[in-house]
Amino acid sequence: MKNLTLVIAMFVCALSANAQMDTVRLMFETNKYELTPKHLKEIDSLLAVKSQISRIKIAGHTDNVGSETYNQKLSEKRAATVYKYLSSHGIDTAMLFVKYYGETDPRVANTNSENQAKNRRVDIVSAFVDTESIAKPQAPPPPKQFHLTFSNGVKMNFVEGNYNKTVEAGLIASDVSNGGGGASPVTLITNTTEMRSNNMLTMTTGNEPLISNLICCFNRELCSASKPVEILVPLREPLQCAAENLIYWDQVVDENGRTKWAPGNQKPEIFELEGKRYYVFKGVPPCGCVNFDFKLAPGCGKVDTFTLEVRKNSKKPKLFTKVTIKKVEVEDATANVLYEAEGNGHGGYTLMILDADKEITKFTVRLTDKKNTAYRINAVALAAFQFDKAGNTYYVTKKGLKAYKK
After folding, report:
1. What value does the mean pLDDT of the chain take?
2. Does residue 252 sit in the same domain as residue 161?
3. Domain of residue 335, residue span
4. Nearby residues of 321 by Cβ (< 8 Å), 6 or more positions away
5. Residues 124, 168 within the same domain
6. How many CB atoms lie within 10 A of CB 269?
7. What is the pLDDT of residues 178-226, one digit of tens each?
8. CB-based contact 200:261 (threshold 8 Å)
């Protein structure tokens, strides 16, 4: 294996007449991602001029040895070690942009071991203002940040001076990494019990069910802030859903006062920090509630879709039309799913659940008959219903309803 080499290339940035780009290229041994003393020496030379840097892109790459999935994660680890070193040595995280390409962006074709060695790399591309610009009055340095860690591992980066002193002190005091953890101006909602108590559903404004990864709510006193927040959300391992399918959602309150979610315009970056993998969302407004969810759909494990309805009896698939289903609520506490199913236009309701949680998902069904008699089937499993395999339909019969009369 050839000795590790470092190449520094400089070129004028085509995007700005007043900037130039400086690329530091770190080469790695096979399957390695840790920084060596030689790496650190070259990165430190970049840190020596950090006051002149406006932006840094960190791009991880691999050769084609191993599977695409393995190489994607290896390139992520390589980029993350550089990110961690820079962020812990005075480079503001707001200046850092991380990408990892796996084996998809080789410098040269992976036709032999020599070429493969050239592709095992991290490119650190720094944007500098040029000498002429430096001689002119400079823009103020990036704002300082303070960091908040929650007991469930969620991390947030706030801009100093963006809040009044009382609010900022409350945020800092709730940081568990510094022995805090008391009342916080930020509330994290992480399970269906908390969602229910806050009148929230895991469903979109288009009534599509979601799998909740985290709901974050900011108190009103934070809404006056002019600077956004950076949020790092730990990946739940093992992943039920493909990591790239996580979506940022904005809060929308419907006519019944229940929170649903509209898709935002952010996609997360994903990287490893201190041995853990995170979704990173930058530019989050610290006001109201935001959500980080997956759609309950293929790509999040096996998803079962079926119908729930009321029948006259178990012998024939004929609806009992004297009783109407008013609402069906579906709760999967393991996957953090809480949504209201939609009617199918034929007297039944269409339901979606994760096959892996089929036995533990709970269903609450509210019904009424033509005499306005109410029925409530409260938090029961699918086993409480009869099943028509031919029609892929669960149902309750006219006779079975009697047990649920309120």
Report:
1. 86
2. yes
3. 303-404
4. 347
5. no
6. 19
7. 766 667 889 999 999 999 999 999 999 999 999 998 999 999 889 888 8
8. no
